[in-house]
Amino acid sequence: MYRYDQYDETLVKERAAEFRGQVARRLSGDLSEEEFKPLRLMNGLYLQLHAYMLRIAIPYGSLSSAQLRRLAHIARKYDKGYGHFTTRQNIQFNWPALIDVPDILDDLAEVSMHAIQTSGNCIRNITSDPYAGAAAGEVDDPRIWSEVIRQWSSLHPEFSFLPRKFKIAVTASEEDRAAIKVHDIGLKLYRNEKGDRGFEVLVGGGLGRTPYIAETVRKFLPEKHLLSYLEAILRVYNQHGRRDNKYKARIKILVAADVEDFRRQVDEEWLKSDRERLDAPLSELLRIRRHFAPPRFETLDDESAALAAARGEYGEFDRWVATNARPHRQAGYAIVNISLKPIGKPPGDIAADQMEAVAELCERYSFDEARATHEQNLVLPHVKKDDLFAVWRGLDDAGLATANIGLISDIIACPGLDYCDLANARSIPVAQKIAERFADPDEAADIGELKIKISGCINACGHHHAGHIGILGVDKKGDEFYQITLGGSGADDASIGAITGRGFASGEVVGAISRLVEFYKENRKTGERFLDAYRRLGPDPFKEVLYVDASTV
Amino acid sequence: MSTLRLSDAGIAIDDRSYGEEITLESWRDGVRPEAGRFAISIPNTEDVDALGEIVRFFSAVILDFPSFQDGRAYSQARILRERLNFTGEIRARGAVLCDQVLFMARAGFDAFEIGAGDADGFRRALSAYSVFYQPAADSSVPIRDLRAAKRAAA
């Protein structure tokens, strides 16, 4: 993991001190709420329906046990005992008092954490593959490059007042676990035919009101030029992105208007720039790289007798391993996914005690590292197969052993009308009802991979466009209605889901989802996922079963 | 309204005048102040890169922040300093708030039109940070170079 040095530490402490001053000016009345708003937003502090919400950055989702314990402490002392993991690998607290926020930032600074640029029209938290350094098939560790970008983008003097927010995701694998095609910039590190490492640079992806899949603006960028090329993209966007209409201000609108012209402008700017000065020097890249050296894995057989025996003995454990564990690049190790989607609970929520339980397990069994995922779950990246049973018991004791990763009840949902003042409809209760309907683990396993994503408004924080089944809450004359989209994906086969037709009342959503699932089960080929069946059969038969019930409006 | 200026000597409110102030539009129409010394105001929609060599005629450039959220002038200032090597004054006008002044200074601004009595807040804000990650248009040494220097000294 990256460890702060004196410079990183100084910067984060100075930021916390600056915000303490700004809060004092607000509390004394020197600043009006209107004047204070942009300042708090630069520090991840939103005013929501009922209270302030503080969003804390977790760069590329990476967390140590000390950081998890500190988050637990913050949840207990300043909040209602829980936190909520977001779709951008961040965590948010829903109930802090303004007067406490400077103390929270001080507490975070002590464990190398902050809330810098978790909101505002600036470069947001850099996200990456939660399996970085653990999954097979990576050409490099994407965390190295994420950290390079994190430092470059922090308090950037030119790019802190962009037309709109700006999100960057990095992967170094063919299998996209970071949803790079729905980011403002998606970076995919790979080796070209000469064997050189470089980035495919995708620009202009995004969800929201007008969803787009990102365009490849540069097929191969030598890795050493990453920062100068990012500067060129951001400079073109800063100068030419629309500022007259908030809903047309994201870079995707600029790219979609004329991708060739956009590419030409970026290349022109890049060729004129002082690349030597803007790019990170090799010595700095090496320094950062050293922080991500592989942990000291033991040399083990890939087969674990202890694991086989425990799987034979305990059916629930066996199911959890099958659903939540993934292959590791190191023989004898596994990647463990911790579901934050227990049936009937808000997706992504975690209690303070549970954070501490994960801290304990990651310290003891996973080289002191845990990860947050963009699907609102957690990961223990490096667990010995021999230890899986102990980890499962620890998770089970903490209520964290739900075996549903990638299945129908592993739902992404935004906070919705329960918390958010932008929302038109509630998201969490819909997620809960669907999860309850498909609570039977045998049925869920039989259905297989099915990604349901729910947003409570058109801003699409729940990524409904990228759901195999997407659900969008809309307000219809004061009642909550839900539109269903089908065929979306945020993975390497990215696509935007298509709207099926008129919306469903909240009481009808579970029935509608059930009809889709039943139709899929009857018509799938062996081993075919819901998404693949949809792509093969096309939208019409699915729409037919969706609207078979005439009671829909 | 007063002007806060940064120089090697420090931060000062001063009344230095650049004589006449003209707009880029009038310059293009052929206006040439007699003294040869003047400040020119440039809208934030202008591609300053295209001005090229002519910037050497300007004593001061005034860039505009129609609202603090409109950050186009940050790019203009950096291009003037880092690409066109403009050495005259770059002055911020409009929504110039103390909480953004350090970004402006790093982007190459060295003068700020501020409300009378705001100077203390600006002074405080300009010294809020001692370290910076990125190379920009100011004279601060980026963290990566501080690290390299420290390694070299060790």
How would you explain this protein's 3D organization?
The complex is a heterodimer of chains A (553) and B (154). Chain A has 553 residues and is α+β, with helices and mostly antiparallel strands. Chain A has four domains: 6-109, Alpha-Beta Complex (Sulfite Reductase Hemoprotein, domain 2); 134-290, Sulfite Reductase Hemoprotein, domain 1; 305-397, Sulfite Reductase Hemoprotein, domain 2; 412-546, Sulfite Reductase Hemoprotein, domain 1, CATH 3.30.413. Helix content of chain A is 37%, strand content 17%. Chain A has helices at 6-27, 33-41, 65-78, 101-109, 142-153, 226-240, 251-257, 259-272, 275-278, 282-290, 305-313, 315-324, 352-365, 388-397, 428-437, 441-447, 509-523, 530-537, 539-546, and strands at 45-47, 52-56, 62-63, 82-85, 91-93, 127-128, 168-171, 185-191, 197-203, 215-222, 325-327, 333-338, 349-351, 370-372, 378-384, 412-413, 452-455, 469-476, 479-486, 498-499, 504-505. In chain A, the strands form four sheets. In chain A, strands 16, 17, 18, 19, 20 and 21 form a six-stranded mixed beta sheet that branches. A five-stranded antiparallel beta sheet of chain A has the order 1-2-5-4-13. In chain A, strands 3-14-15-12-11 form a five-stranded antiparallel beta sheet. In chain A, helix 11 packs across helix 12 (315-324). The longest helix of chain A is centred in the first third of the chain and has 22 residues, at 6-27. Chain A is globular, with a radius of gyration of 23 Å. In chain A, 54% of the residues are buried. Chain B has 154 residues and is of the alpha/beta class. Chain B has a single domain, classed as Aldolase class I (TIM Barrel), CATH 3.20.20.70. Helices cover 28% and strands 23% of the residues of chain B. Chain B contains five helices and seven strands; from the N terminus they run βββαββαβαβαα. Chain B has helices at residues 24-28, 72-83, 101-107, 119-126, 143-153; strands spanning 2-7, 10-13, 20-23, 38-42, 60-65, 89-94, 111-114. A seven-stranded mixed beta sheet of chain B has the order 2-1-7-6-5-4-3. In chain B, strand 6 (89-94), helix 3 (101-107) and strand 7 form a beta-alpha-beta unit. Chain B is globular, with a radius of gyration of 16 Å. The model of chain B has no long low-confidence stretch (mean pLDDT 93). Chains A and B meet through helix 1, helix 6 and helix 10 of A and helix 2, helix 3 and helix 5 of B.
